Amino acid sequence: MEAIYKLLVKIIDSYASLRDKINKGWKEKNSSRIREWKLMSYAFSKSKIGVLGGILVFIEVVLAIVGPIIAWEPYWVYPVINNPDLKLLPPCIPPWCTGGPLLGTDEWGRDLLSITLVGVRISFIISILVVLFGAPLGIILGLVAGYKGGVIDEIIMRLTDIFMAFPALVLAIAFAAVLPERLRLLLESNTMLRDFLAALLGLRVNEYPQIASLLAVWIAMILVWWPGYARIVRGSVLSAKEQTFVEAAKVLGLSTRRILFKHILPNIISPIIVMMTFDIATAALFAATLSFLGLGPQEPVPELGFIISKAGNWFPHRSYHIVTFVGIVLLIIALGWNLLGDALRDILDPRTRRAIEFTEGGEKK
Amino acid sequence: MSIGGDPVLSVRNLDVKFYTYAGVVHAVSNVSFDVYKGEIVALVGETGCGKSVTTKAITRLIDPPGRIEGGKAYFRRRNGEVVDLLSLSDEEIRDIRGNEIAYVFQDPTSALDPLYTIGHHFYETMIDHRKIDKKNAIQHAVNLLKETLIPSPESRVKNYPHELSGGMRQRSVIAIGLSNNPVLLIADEPTTNLDVTIQAQILELIKDLQAKHGMSVILITHNLGVVAEVAHRVYVMYAGKIVEEAPVEELFENPQHPYTRLLLRTVPDPTKKIEKLESIPGTVPSLINPLPGCRFRDRCPFASEKCLEEPPMVEVGKAHQVYCWLHAVKG
Amino acid sequence: MGLGRFLARRVATFIPTIIGVLFITYLIAYAIPADPVRAWVGEKLMNREALEEIRAKYKFDAPWYEQFAFLVTSLLTGNLEDPIQHRNIFDELFYRFPITVEVAIMGFIFTAIIGIPLGFIAALKKDSIVDFFVRIFALVGSSLPAFVLYYFLILFLFTYMHTTVLAGMPFPSQTCIASISSLPSKIPVIGHIVSAIGSVPMFGAMMCGEWGVVADTFRRLYLPGLALGLLDGGLIARIVRNSLLDSLSQEYIQYAKARGLRKRRIWMHALKNASIPVVTVLGTLFGGLLSGAIVAETVFNIPGLGRYIYNAITRLNFPAIIGGTFLVAIVYVTVNLIVDIIYAVLDPRIRY
Fold first, then answer.
1. Which of A36, B133, B191, B329 has its CA 20 to 30 A from that of B120?
2. Is this complex's ipTM strictly greater than 0.85?
3. Do C145 and A308 touch (CB under 8 A)?
4. Residues of A in Cβ contact (< 8 Å) with C152
5. C44 lies within 8 A of chain B by CB
6. What does pLDDT average to in each consecutive run of 10 residues of chain B (331 residues)?
7. What residues in chain B have their Cβ under 8 A from chain A's Cβ atoms?
8. Which pLDDT tens digit goes with each residue over A176-197?
9. Could you report how far apart the first and last alpha carbons of chain B are, in Å?
């Protein structure tokens, strides 16, 4: 725990020095904010679930980055064609067994561990991108709706009502079913986009139809995700609007954009950050579910939900190892972010944060 | 009004501590006071001095991490029996609460349950203490609301709390307190959350109700103006202890404790031109593991070595006591 | 302002929402697909004549407002035909819908039975081992992919322990079904309501006293019910715990104590206030169970609406996806409306 605290403090300090180099005197002006960050880091380092979540997330990020690079078997090759015996091999874990694939193979004879490493990156990219795009979209619309009020507010709220009228999964299914066609055409014509996405996801350019499906899943999920943020942010803005510091800012003649982003947003951002963290977990499972239902990328792309879906055909006797292992991987991915979100929620609430500080016997500078 | 005879409430050596993250807070230390029949007693002091904790303690409304650690609270019940509130069983104290001792909360908005009508609040306060049917209970409620000068009480009784204004809520809470004709009414800062104009009305109301029903009232406030308006006798509290007690005129004309004197000086005289507002320099001391002796020591212009010892109670006039070494020396 | 006016206002927003749902459905059905005709017809090859017929019938070459009008009328009258097999999608949908309702009810019962008592205990024994367990339970429940849990429950409770079946669907007898469906003609309004409830196989069997069928239903559906209960039970437990603790710490509880109210009455105050967020979450949960049914029915082989939509996806049966999506959305909107009404009944403050 100490180590983590020291590490975080180091990161904060280097960030502060960097900002200071860009704008002289930044460190002075923001000294209380820096101190608050360090207090939060202390509270975080003291929180067991926070640290555990952080570790799990860190592992996922590392695997996501290096996964496709260190995966020793190419996911697009089906060894089963040359050697039918390789189909659905059970795990071979030393010391009870040697010489076989550590976690067994899938129905095409591919090493399960190898293709999972590719799948982790896909899961990570999709879940991060959904939240990274969906949340800001919703936040901005919520800010505008809450601050401006009037007709704009009505329109945006009606939109959220309509989108939220559908159960998330159903709406995502509907969009994910109709979008791939259009997106496939898009990727065919726009090779730069295609190459970029392929590299990002750790896939070959040849799989662009599957990438189109992934893109469809991504867009479908963003459409489902933004209304929640818009609603919550709008609510927060409505109550923040009444506070005197907003009136003061207006009187000082600050522009709307400045008021919204520099004054209102920082005050309402904490629960949003917590929500985003939890949502990364939800998005990862959601994307896996869409793939499970057949709406994501198809063969040979090893999306985690899709792997389990195919394994279902051979369950339980021949594919229990696939469902178990990939299931646990998904569980750990989601668990990491959920734990992190839980810890962040406690830390960002000043009351519970103080409680953590005091029980450990005083603040640390 | 007739004061005298045996007291309705006698608190002796009350001690309340709070065990918190930051340490043990000595919220109330060795507090003793009396309330006689038919009088309005004011408990005055700044925020955090322990006045609310004192009255919550005697009605046994202190929850962990608070603990009542000592003292007695003798109460004379309607039937003449004298009991120690602090040693009663849960059921016995429940019987007294809302019935013989009524508590009016400071913030009527959060005290009233938003899911129940005003009428229901009345009804449940009555039915849990005596036999009464709903119709009569509601009728009684309407009468009480009328007494507290709420217009159209018949419809108000069916309203939910959020449908009433702040002033009406406060009156309702006072009226609910009167449901069972209590012997003692404890009003915790009844006017703090209200507009000044409403404040005056509520104070008049309390005075009238008290005269009419003959009950005793403990009024908790930090506002000396309120004290002057309404109280018969005053106890001044500071940092968890009582520092002075006197009849109201005596206190204002002849304050003896340095704190009381400084406190009275801070109240601006509206008839005079004021250059600068007076304040008492320094801040209230921390009540976590407080040092022995007088707690006003650090801010008192007359403090001396002696003040490190617990100051004695000194009688300085008729029914006028002060807890200070200055007067002990003078004798 | 009163409940009545609130209800009127709330129901009034129902209409624009439905219009919005129709519009989104339209986008999905006509506007977004690159080649709508291909999408609707699927991979099946057909001659030019047949294609022209379909083009005209489904208004693929008509301007957008005609397309929209066609879609709206089809959906609202429950008359959407599959262009290849010329069957009305809605017949399938209405047949399968009650089954999905059954699954959702099962899931709901298990979630409530697991979650509410646990939440209570966690609140009463705050920071104890039970409280800690509830936290973990909620965490794992929301981190575990549903389909993985389904497979594992099947592995243990079906493959190894043979406690359930994974095929077929218990229905009440023909005579029972006949008598229930004849009710609307005998007693109007009430007959319709009872008949609608009775179309859910489990309830229909209960109405006719066919308890064997009820038992069979339980045996068939308890696995998905249990699974859903395990996934969402933790969340409900946490909500119950938090809202109960929150309610108990409110000033009105102190005030109730100060008035010397009896313990049971004080508890009623706490529970009534605590129930509001719980009921709201349970309500939205029920709506969510409908979409969760898609995955559950697929894995547990239940012939409900969810499985139908899943098949429609894999076989690219576009009209089925459109019709199914629309129906689920309508039901979801209705469930939300009911939840809002219950909320307004419980909490007088929001009736403005």
1. B191
2. yes
3. yes
4. 323, 327
5. no
6. 70 91 87 91 88 92 89 90 91 92 90 93 93 91 89 91 88 91 91 80 85 90 87 92 91 88 81 78 81 84 83 85 78 45
7. 21-22
8. 888 888 888 888 888 888 888 8
9. 33
- Chain B nearest-CA distance from C260, in A, is 4
Chains A, C: CB contacts under 8 A, how many?
Answer: 145
Give the ranges where C78-145 is alpha helix by DSSP (H). Answer: 89-124, 129-143
CB A296 within 8 A of CB A287: yes
Q: Are B222 and B45 in contact (CB under 8 A)?
A: yes
Task: Give the B:C interface size as CB pairs under 8 Å.
Answer: 71
Q: Which residue of A has its CA nearest to C154?
A: A316
Partner residue facing A170 (CB), from C34, C155, C291:
C291
One-letter identity of residue A116: T
Using CA coordinates, name the residue in chain C closest to B102. C259
Cβ of B59 within 8 Å of Cβ of C258? The answer is yes
Strands B82-84 and B66-76: antiparallel
Of A173, A178, A338, the CB nearest to C32: A178
- Of the CA atoms within 13 Å of residue C227, those in its CB half-sphere come to 28
C285 sits in which H/E element: helix C263-300
Q: What whole-number distance in Å separates Cα of residue B54 and Cα of residue B14?
A: 8
Helix or strand holding residue B225 (H, E): helix B224-230
**In the predicted structure, residue A365 carries a pLDDT above the cut 60:** no
d(CA A68, CA A204): 11
Beta-bridged to residue C155, according to DSSP, are none
Please state the length of chain A. Answer: 365
Give the whole-angstrom CA distance, residue C166 versus residue C157: 11
CB neighbourhood size of B56 (10 A)? 22
The pLDDT tens digits for C229-244 are: 999 999 999 999 999 9
Tell me the chain A residues in contact with residue B22 when contact means C-beta distances shorter than 8 Å.
358
Contacts of B21 in chain A (CB under 8 A): 354-355, 358-359
Contact B22 A358 (CB under 8 A): yes
Tokens of C35: 């080649």
Q: How many CB atoms lie within 10 A of CB A179?
A: 25
Instruction: Write phi, then psi, for B271 (nearest 5 degrees).
Output: -85, -15
Distances (CA, A) of A75 to A70, C140, C163: 12, 30, 39
CA neighbor of B179 nearest in space, from B218, B135, B129 = B129
